[in-house]
Design brief:
11 strands, single chain, 293 residues, 7 helices, three-stranded antiparallel sheet, eight-stranded mixed sheet
Length: 293
Amino acid sequence: MVADHVPLPAGRSTRPADLTPADVRWLSWHEARSHGLIGREVRDLGDAYLLYDPTDREPFWNRLVGVAWPSEPAAFDRRLTEVLALFAGLDRIPHVWPMPGFDEPPDLAERLLAQGFDDHGGGMFMVFDPDRAALDAAAPGLGDGGLVTIERLHRIAGPTAEAAVQGIAEVLVTAFGVEPERRVAIELEALQGLTTEAYHAVLVRIDGKPAAVARRTTFSGASYLSSIGTDPAFRGQGLGRLVTSIVVGDALRAGSRWIYLGVFQENDVAQRLYASLGFDAIGGVAPDLLLRP
C-alpha cells in the first residue's frame, strides 16, 4: 500500500523528550514521504515504511524505516526473510535505518548486524524544542561589507526557478563535496520540488554569489529540514545559523507541530549549531545498515 497520508499521532506535546515510539515512526514516515514527493514511492508495510525509487538504485533512496517487528526470534527471522525477498524483487540492496530507543525490537540493529548487515555510518535525529528556541534571523555583518540577500523560494517556475536551482546546486556541490556529475540530479530535484506545495528553500547570496542554502518540506503538521549547507568560501560568517533560523521560523509560522532534521554523527560543528538553536538529539546514534554483498 502506498503511504500518501498517515494520520498525525494524537499526542499534544511538541517537546522532544516526550516523543513516543508512535511519534517517531510517524516522523520516519514524514521524512520518507518528504523524499517521495517527486517520483519516489513510500509503501506502508504495516510494520515499517519502505522508501523506493523506481529509477535510482542509490541506497539512500531505497530504505526501510519506522520498523516495528516482532521480538520472538522465529517471527523476527520470518519477517526479515520476507523483507529481504521484497528488496530482491525490487532489485535493490536491503537497507534499514533503525531508530535506537524507538524501533522494535529494541535490539533491532544488533540482530541485523548478526544477520549480515554492515553499518555504513551513524546519524543523529534532532527535533526542535520550542521552549529552547534561540533563533537568529538577522543577516550577519560581513567584514568585507558584502551585500547579503535572502531569497525564499516556493512555487516558482521559468527563468526565476532555473536561476534558483542553479544557485542551490552550486552551494550543495561545494558544501558537501558532491561529485560534479551529481549536480544535474540536484538541480532536477530542486526544480521538481519547486512545483510542489510542500517544498520551500532559502538561498542566501553575498554580492550575488550563492553562499548558503536550507530546505524545508512542510506538510501534515510537520517540517523536515534538509540540504543545509554553506559554500566553504563563506564559512565562519554565521550563514548556516541564519538559514537554519529562517527555515525554523517559517516552519513555526506555518503551524508545524514538529520540526526535525538529520545530521551525520561525525559532524560535530553542525550538531552544536542545531543544539544552540533549540534542537535536541533523540534516540542516540542511528546506524545506516546495508546487507553485506
